[in-house]
Design goal:
The protein is of the alpha+beta class. About 35% of the residues lie in helices and about 30% in strands. It has three helices and four strands. A four-stranded antiparallel beta sheet has the order 2-3-1-4. Helix 1 runs antiparallel to helix 3. The longest helix has 13 residues.
């Protein structure tokens, strides 16, 4: 697992998906089946988290830059196809880019 370090370069994008419990496994499989994250230019690392109650999946991605994120999500056919399948499985989605904030001032 990649550590999250304040001040590190790049951007973190966190998608919080709300899903029916019967669709949680299919959603995780859909994202896993999209291929090797190492094959996506600009994607440093990715983690999937699933809630124990089956109602949420979080996709945490670290990109080299917001520009790399926008380029990949705007033109990569694998990402576009996965996004279409994901949309069929979820009830809602909250995507946001985040900055890592240090705990000390």
């Amino acid at each position: 697992m990649l550590p999250i370090v304040a001040g590190q370069q790049g951007v973190l994008v966190i998608n919080v998906f709300t899903v029916r419990p019967e669709n949680q496994g299919a959603l995780v499989d859909c994202i896993r089946d999209a291929g090797d994250p190492a094959d996506i230019p600009g994607l440093v690392g990715m983690h999937l988290l699933r809630s124990e109650d089956g109602t949420r999946v979080i996709n945490h991605m670290h990109w080299t830059s917001e520009r790399a994120f926008r380029a990949a999500t705007g033109s990569n056919p694998v990402i576009e196809a996965t996004r279409a399948r994901v949309t069929d499985l979820i009830d809602s989605r909250l995507p946001d880019p985040y900055e890592v904030v240090p705990l000390t001032r």
